[in-house]
Amino acid sequence: MGYTAYPQDEAKRLGYNNLMYPNEHFSPETAQELYSMYFDELQYCTEAGFDGVMINEHHNNPLCMMPSVNVIGSVLASRTKQGKIVFLGNVLPIHENPLRIAEEIAMIDILSGGRVVCGFVRGIGQEAWPPTPTRSTTRERFDEAHNVIVDAWTKPGPFRHEGKHYHYRVVNPWVMPLQKPHPPIWIPGVASPESVIWAAKHQYPYVALAPPLQLLSDIYQLYQNTAEADGWSPTPQHRGYAVRVNVADTDEKAYEEGKNFYWQLGTSFGVTPNHWLAPPGYLTRAASTGPREQARRAVQTAVPGGPVLPYDDAQETYQIVTGNPDTVIKKMKHLIDIIDPGYVIFWGREGPMSHDVAVRSIDLMTQEVIPALREYEAQREE
């Protein structure tokens, strides 16, 4: 749900378009029109043939007008009648009361008829800037907040929680999720080894957020190794992949429409100074110097704050997939062969893409691409 109406030239002059970009450029009236369009598209996805819709949360950034994924999810619980509502997800470290998150998600799970898939995220670096005490403790706050939420859903109350960051004399939420023991939990990320390992140790699906193609096998090998060391074997249902996709009637048209993924000064997340993206204490030494991070930087991937990756290079590394239905099916089969994911998330709309273009892509996906991929079995090389 990008806010596309801010002055691009001013952002280029400043050299950034988030965190410190003046919010005087925000128009509530324009946002109201955009929200209406986005909700119409998400509702149409559930009616046209998608298994569900994914929503996310970001702060201080025109990329995303969803500073509360739970508010957006509650609207979708009312507007849609079928399909999963996937939260990817609540930014746990910035919250001072994770028990409220547990209550809100439980409410939405009930209101939706048990359609919530719950994702938890640590957030991108710039989201740790406003609440300054959290920058060096985001991972431990994430871990403890997760524990508070899961305990609230699964342990009979009342009970007491005394942790390092959160203290509750009484944990006894009255509203509990419809799904038992709780809604499915997915963990999204780009390439951080700690996040991959954490997801594997909790046996949660790890959803790779459009990393370069050459990093995929390495990411899921780390997941596999961690799981096997803990005595269990992952299945495809533990692997997910989010990929930017635009489908049009011709390859040429899709190629041009795919450039909408580059609307924020060259990458989907805009331009962010490195010290905003990775404030002191946000990345561990292992994460900042590890092979995955080095490889990510080497290809100048289109991730938050990354350098501008040439559009054709983004196509080469499968960070953006465009084409007519046959072309997209072929490309997606190649991706499926590499990781055999149980879940594929189509990041199908971005930036100034028109409503008509988005809807046509939805139609081609649901009528041609998705049916072909449902029938396809991965041809993985062992």
Automatic annotation (TrEMBL):
Any one of the GO CC terms: cytosol
SUPFAM superfamilies tied to this protein: Bacterial luciferase-like
Residues annotated as domain Luciferase-like: 45-335
Organism: Geodia barretti (Barrett's horny sponge)
Domain of life where this protein originates: Eukaryota
Keyword terms of this UniProt record: Monooxygenase, Oxidoreductase
Full protein name: Uncharacterized protein y4wF
The keyword Transit peptide belongs to this UniProt entry's keyword annotation: no
UniProt cross-references to InterPro entries, sorted A to Z: Bact_Lucif_Oxidored (IPR050766), Luciferase-like_dom (IPR011251), Luciferase-like_sf (IPR036661)
Keyword Oxidoreductase: yes
A single MF term (Gene Ontology): oxidoreductase activity, acting on paired donors, with incorporation or reduction of molecular oxygen
